[in-house]
Amino acid sequence: VHGDSSLTWLSRMPQFTLYVKADVEGLTNIRPGPDFQWALKVRCLNCQEEAANTVYMRESEMQALPGSRGEAHCVLKCRMCERQNSMSLLPASLTPYMAESSGSWAPLISFECRGVAPVRWEFNGAEGLLADAAGDDREKTWPVVFEDGTFTEYDEATSESVSIFDMDSKVE
Fold first, then answer.
1. What is the pLDDT of residue 138?
2. Does residue 3 carry a pLDDT above 50?
3. How big is the CA angle at 118 (ends 7 and 167), to the nearest 5 degrees?
4. Are 49 and 129 in contact (CB under 8 A)?
5. Which of 165, 163, 167, 169 is nearest to 142 (CA)?
6. What is the pLDDT of residues 114-168, one digit of tens each?
7. What is the largest CA-CA distance in the chain?
8. Residue by residue, what is the 3-state secondary structure of the chain?
9. Among residues 97, 95, 76, 100, which one has the least CA distance to residue 87?
10. Beta strands at 129-133 and 55-58: parallel, antiparallel or unpaired
11. Based on the number of CB atoms within 10 Å of its own CB, is 9 exposed (0-12), middle (13-18) or buried (19 or more)?
């Protein structure tokens, strides 16, 4: 006899977590700002084909699932096998990258996926990331845009540089 928990397990979609790692100086609480646009490379779980185009999604935008009453943050069709796939952000899973994690992998956000898996986060050039000053001027928030995995600025108030180097991401 199967309990209700087996039904819950059957209806649950696979989840993937985006991890980030960076060397951070003078900054903490690195996170997406309001209405941040995520840019991800994805792979079809049916045919294993990696999509040629980057997939974009925002927490504030939902798309209808064809043939269903449901919605997802991203609905896409695989060009190779023509399977309909979907992916949604799990906003409650968002965990800012803190200065204490510098140099180590830490989870940033999770995705609920049907038929597709995120492969990597395309963070270079993405606008809308934010980071807080880690020193005495904790009130200051910096807009962060990466170029080649690096962000550097000079904080005139503290006469020190703030930076994020060697930004990398992985999905598990």
1. 65
2. no
3. 130
4. no
5. 163
6. 999 999 999 998 889 999 988 765 678 999 999 998 999 998 888 889 999 999 9
7. 67
8. CCCHHHHHHHHCCCEEEEEEEEEEECEEEEEECCCCEEEEEEEECCCCCECCCCEEEECCCCEECCCCCCEECEEEECCCCCCEEEEEEEHHHCCCECHHHCCCCEEEEEEEEECEEEEEECCECCCCEEEEECCCCCCCEEEECEECCEEEEEECCCCEEEEEEEEEEEEC
9. 76
10. unpaired
11. exposed
Which residues have C-beta within 8 Å of that of residue 81, sequence separation ≥ 6? 44, 46, 47, 49
Structure tokens given for 166? 């060697």
Instruction: Give the pair of three-digit tokens for residue 149.
Output: 């995995």
CA distances from 55 to 43, 58, 77, 87, 127 (A): 10, 11, 11, 10, 15
